[in-house]
Amino acid sequence: MYQITDWCRHFISLQVRPGDLCIDATMGNGRDTELLCRLAGPHGKVLAFDIQEAALQNTKKRLRESGVPDNYRLILDSHSHMHHYASAGSVSCITFNLGYLPGGDHALATKADTSLDALEQSLTLLKKDGLISLCIYSGKDTGFEERDALLPFLKSLDPRSYLVILSAYYNRPAHPPIPVLIRRL
Fold it and tell me: What is the pTM of this model?
């Protein structure tokens, strides 16, 4: 089955160039961090955030074993604090995979208030033509409140400043994930 993360990674791969500064706002097990490191190359920089030590350790192991350039900083902090680590207008690509750590405790999931704050910050951190990749999950035990806070916010963004493309897994049952791309114009 074609995953939401595969769909988003396609567009991330078209966006990121060697030397870029990128952010993985929700590090998880490090798959997006690894991709961003490869794409940004040895002269680029990747900042990856998570609030769980397990995510940081899983990602550190993945990056070490994958042989990516040493161009990353793994940060044990909320994605709602990313503005402390990058300056406005400096970031080429920011990725979000909302929800909980795959294989982790479902009670430790992203929350509407911090994700909305992080998304607002992301908009200011993006450089012109920068891209945000946002995977919204809303099934089972998490995500409905987060989804219901993010979607109206995305719809309200000024169309002269941002292009928001919301897609749907139209033929999948039971609250399929929602892939979103945001480009700063």
Answer: 0.91
